[in-house]
Amino acid sequence: xxxxxxxxxxxxxxxxxxxxxxxxxxxxxxxxxxxxxxxxxxxxxxxxxxxxxxxxxxxxxxxxxxxxxxxxxxxxxxxxxxxxxxxxxxxxxxxxxxxxxxxxxxxxxxxxxxxxxxxxxxxxxxxxxxxxxxxxxxxxxxxxxxxxxxxxxxxxxxx
Length: 159
Hints:
Helices cover 33% and strands 21% of the residues. It is of the alpha+beta class and 159 residues long. The protein has a 5-stranded mixed beta sheet with strand order 1-2-3-4-5, with helices on both faces.
């Protein structure tokens, strides 16, 4: 199986949408279509801080990753948050996820960022197996979140 990790193009929209839907279903959540449309636009916008990559397997998009850099209070360099990673279940275990992570890590190195981090669900054992191999194991930190309401379905200044 040949794997190619690359920047997404506008022609990848339907494949990305299929995978994005699978990702949201996996995490048992729904987002309004304007949120999904805005995310796709942000991924394609070279001026937006949100970056995306897709993984093509035998000519078909089978995975994606979204990530961005942010200031780091413990370092002068930005730190990279890998926010979303999803691989089509049909090709899991074949190196697609690892290739996407390695591509983000490579980008972070080239940009001079201080590191890459991400979260996953505690019961996502398949992903955690890969993440343990890539990182050497969990960091030991526990994530706490305080949700402030549902995602906006339009930008706050769209009035």
